[in-house]
From TrEMBL:
It comes from Saccharomonospora cyanea NA-134. The lineage of its organism: Bacteria, Bacillati, Actinomycetota, Actinomycetes, Pseudonocardiales. This is Multisubunit Na+/H+ antiporter, MnhB subunit. Belongs to the CPA3 antiporters (TC 2.A.63) subunit B family. The keyword Oxidoreductase does not apply. It is found in: Cell membrane. It comes from the Bacteria. GO terms for cellular component: plasma membrane. It is a multi-pass membrane protein. Keywords: Cell membrane, Membrane, Transmembrane, Transmembrane helix. It holds the Pfam family MnhB. Its main location: membrane. Residues 39-161 form the Na+/H+ antiporter MnhB subunit-related protein domain.
Length: 190
């Protein structure tokens, strides 16, 4: 006995478990950018690792070397490496969250974390430390300056992503213009 499904349900059933992101760029997705298969494969390992190091730097910034600025630079370099490996096809152009929104969120978090202590009668940018006992990890110290560092982190990452988006698209448009100028109508080479 065969059960017939409507066409839309059959299409969903056939595609529901496919990965949303391609492991490597296809030739049809490539836009005038030299492709390095080794760089693309290594990037799949390095990119999440570098982002994890950036998160560590963010959380370790109050008591050790690190903080929002250095964590933002490390995360920004991960996105630069991703852009170098795949160009704007890697999601910078079509991401759901645009870089100006990330910059704005970072500014809001920085200003809010700087002004909130004033409402408690403390000077601007005052910091407090809370100690929390976590069953498996022991006691953790959480500083309120982590909010400020998170805002700086978002600000730096947003600026780097915005630079990649604007400069990268300008480079690609320049390449397209020069290619179009090389192949003018009536040219003997076409």
């Amino acid at each position: 006995m065969t059960v017939s499904r409507p066409e839309g349900a059959q299409l969903w059933w056939d595609t529901c478990d496919r990965p949303r992101e391609h492991w490597l760029m296809r030739e049809s997705e490539q836009t005038r950018w030299p492709r390095s298969l080794l760089l693309e494969v290594c990037l799949r390992i390095v990119f999440p690792t570098v982002l994890l190091v950036a998160v560590y730097l963010l959380f370790a910034g109050h008591t050790r070397a690190g903080g929002g600025f250095s964590a933002g630079l490390v995360a920004g370099l991960a996105f630069v490496l991703r852009y170098v490996a795949g160009g704007s096809v890697t999601g910078l152009r079509s991401s759901r969250v645009q870089p100006p929104v990330v910059i704005g969120c970072g500014l809001v978090v920085v200003v809010a974390s700087a002004i909130v202590p004033v409402f408690f009668g403390l000077p601007v940018l005052s910091s407090a430390i809370w100690t929390v006992d976590v069953p498996l990890l022991g006691s953790l110290k959480i500083a309120t300056s982590l909010a400020f560092d998170t805002g700086v982190f978002l600000l730096i990452v947003g600026v780097v992503l915005n630079l990649l988006r604007t400069l990268g698209e300008g480079i690609q448009l320049g390449e397209l213009e020069s290619e179009l100028n090389d192949h003018q109508p009536g040219d003997a080479s076409t």
